[in-house]
Amino acid sequence: MSRFSEPQDPVFRAMNTSLGFDRRMWPQDLRGSRAHARMLAARGIIGEDDLEVILRGFAQIEGELQDGSFPFGADDEDIHMAVERRLTELVGDPGARLHTARSRNDQVATDFALWTAEAAERAIAGIEGLMRTLVEVAEEHRNWPMPAYTHLQRAQPVYLAHHLLAYVWMLERDRARFRFTREQALRRMPLGAGALAGVNFDTDRTMTAAELGFDAPAPNSIDAVSNRDFALDYLGAAATCATHLSRLGQEIVQWASEEFGFLVLPDAWSSGSSLMPQKKNPDCAELLRAKAPRITGHLTALLGVIHALPLTYNKDLQEDKEHVFDAADTLEQSLAAASGMIAGGTFRKDRMAAAAADELLAATDLADELVKRGVPFRQCHAIVGGLVREAVDSGRKLSDLSDDELQAQSPHLGPWIRELLEPLSLLERKQSQGGTSSLRLTEQLELAHGLLA
Ligand code: ARG
Fold first, then answer.
1. Domain extent listing, the chain
2. Residue ID of nearest Cα to ligand 1 atom 10
3. Which of 101, 285, 358, 422 could form a disulfide with 249 if both were Cys (CB 3.0 to 4.6 A apart)?
4. pTM of the entire structure?
5. 33 lines ligand 1 (CB under 6 A)
């Protein structure tokens, strides 16, 4: 007997089932169910003999899920029902006792929190992998000058290592966000909240929480089954991290272009054109750019699902998992790809040095030197602006201007400016904390190594 007089409409059934995507949570479902069964037996809610039989059933089910022989049924709505159905099929009544003192509402919230915590750990590992690659490549290019840009206009020369390390600090913040995500996901365990109000049995949720690695049972059963903040935390962290990778992807696209020519991508991370035989395209870097909005879309979508959702569980919440699953798959792939592409790339010292040798990049330094000689900064800015205009208008470099021309711009100018126009001198003068000079770069590399120790 059942509440229903007719079978589900096939269209509704297809819409309602989550097995297609939530089956990947089977390891978490088994973990949760084993812990629940042990607790039920410890509290005398089921017999020790029941527990033994249930655990034996789970051992077989785990094998079946691992080797792909698990017989999913047409009526299995989700992974939770599939596992319980199979258990009962295998062991009979003890299996049918398993769902005592729990609901799928607390079960799914628990499984998903465990899954998300593990995904956060994988993200941290991927982030650290990329950080390590960046630090290594930075070490190898410690004193390779290149221009840094604002508005994509050459601004000031920096060392390539300094530029690469900028991403390490972005990733270090991403790592902190994923650590927070993991910590929050494992803070308060939903399991044992029942459908929403608690259960009619003398359970021990502290015991299950300890076994599953949660800090404590969630203190409010309503919040326990409604909460998906851990998923939002994951998606927020993932969206920011992927957005960082999109900036790296864009820079790689630029660097690998003929126009920049700063970077030769490894063949293993490039594609050809179906039409133009000469092409070697930075598809991987372009995809890094385009994967970010996909992940941001998942964040926006889940915020939309939860927006104004009344407490407690609503089936809307089944639409939480695919966003997180796809975001996790996409992010893990992007991190690995970024690392592979950078590790295999070849930077072109000549091209970067030639671009960094652009004397106009010394304009700020000239102005600063005038300041040191007692001229107020605003006047210095104007003097050097006039100098730059004179050079650009006459198609010459700053160092080509004669002493008389310098004097004509300002009595404060003189032949001394020419030695300042050397790119290396510009770089090494940036001795302020966090600056690009070799001295500061050495400090920074040490700090970066410390992040990964
Ligand atoms: N597959 C469901 C989900 O992912 C499991 C929870 C179902 N609970 C319910 N009351 N229908 O959310």
1. 10-100, 105-354, 356-452
2. 105
3. 285
4. 0.94
5. no
CA 104 to ligand 1 center in whole angstroms: 6
Per annotation, catalytic residue among 2, 151, 307, 432: 151
Q: Whose CA is nearest to atom 7 of ligand 1?
A: 104
Q: In a mutational test of the pocket of ligand 1, which residue from 15, 108, 319 has the highest number of ligand atoms less than 8 Å from its CB?
A: 108
Provide the CA 260 distance to its chain's centre, in angstroms. Answer: 28
Distance (Å, whole) CA 235 – CA 177? 10
Fold of 10-100: Fumarase C; Chain B, domain 1 (1.10.275)
Quick one: pLDDT at residue 419? Answer: 84
Catalytic residue among 273, 394, 402, 425: 273
> With contact defined as beta carbons under 8 Å apart, do 188 and 218 qualify?
yes
Is the domain 105-354 a CATH 1.10.3720.10 member? no
- 263-264 and 188-189: which strand pairing? unpaired
End-to-end CA distance of the chain: 61
Which atom of ligand 1 is closest in space to residue 313's alpha carbon?
Answer: 10
CB-ligand 1 contact for 23 (6 Å cutoff) = no
Q: Which of the following CATH numbers is that of domain 356-452: 1.10.40.30, 3.90.1150.10, 2.40.30.110, 3.30.70.2190?
A: 1.10.40.30
Our answer to whether residue 273 is catalytic in this structure is: yes
Prior bond of 181 cis (ω within 30°): no
Count the residues in the chain: 453
Report how far ligand 1's centroid is from the alpha carbon of 413 (Å): 76
pLDDT tens-digit profile of 130-157?
A: 999 999 999 999 999 999 999 999 999 9
Is ligand 1 within 6 A of the CB of residue 105? yes
Q: Is the CB of 313 under 6 A from ligand 1?
A: yes
Distance of alpha carbon 422 from alpha carbon 143, whole angstroms:
14
- Name residues of the chain where pLDDT drops below 70: none
**Does the C-beta of 406 come closer than 6 Å to ligand 1?**
no
298 phi and psi angles, rounded to 5 deg: -65, -40
CA distances from 39 to 47, 129, 219, 283 (A): 11, 39, 18, 52
Residue 347 CB: number of other CB atoms within 10 A?
Answer: 18
Q: Is ligand 1 within 6 A of the CB of residue 78? A: yes
